[in-house]
Fold this sequence. Notes:
Elements: E1 2-5, H1 11-20, H2 30-39, E2 42-48, E3 51-60, H3 68-74, E4 81-88, H4 97-110, E5 116-124, H5 128-136, E6 140-147, E7 150-158
Parallel strand pairs: 4-5
Antiparallel strand pairs: 1-2, 2-3, 3-4, 5-7, 6-7
Amino acid sequence: MTIRDLTKADWPAVLRLNEESVHFLAPMDEANLAKWSAAASYFRVVELEGKVAAFLLGFRKDDDYNGVNFAWFAQRYSDFVYVDRIVVAPEFRGRKLADQLYDDFEAFARGRAVRHLTCEVNAEPPNPVSLRFHEKRGFKEVGREKYAGKTVSMLHCPL
């Protein structure tokens, strides 16, 4: 298993993985992938058995990103890293790949003296697997926001 930076050769796999989990995520097309990969402070994949098995897209406060949830955190924290999305391919779930990506992302943040890790998880409709995962990692709800027909739980974890 290797955690490495995203390359353009990974784009088809990332787009496919995102589409498979789009009921929990915002859609991603190639134009957005190009824009976000250029703007993101962190965009890494897990390569396992010769395949992209998972990815994590993360932004730092001053990155050129206009997501509404990102903006919510930007109004409240002087510096933070934000998990925009993390996806693990169904055939690789249960192997702790999300934990390994989060460990890597946290190391990235600590290496830059960032002390706030943020993300949001669907509360309505609920995403109980993600909520349990984040609770185990020490995240606490710091707010809720409604938009686009859903409610998200705004989560924070001090580093």
